Amino acid sequence: MHRFFAPDIAATLALPEEESRHCVRVLRLVEGDEIEVIDGAGMLYNCRIAMAHAKHCGVEIISQESCPPHWGSKIMIAVAPTKNLDRIEWMAEKCTEMGVDRFTPLLCRHSERKVLKTERLHKIIVAAMKQSLKAQLPQLDELTPIEDFLAENSDAQRFIAYCDESLPRDERKSLAQVYDSSRDAVVLIGPEGDFDPQEVEAALKAGFVPVTLGESRLRTETAALMAVATMHVIKC
Question: Which of 8, 22, 117, 173 has the most Cβ atoms closer than 10 angstroms to its Cβ?
Answer without folding.
Answer: 22
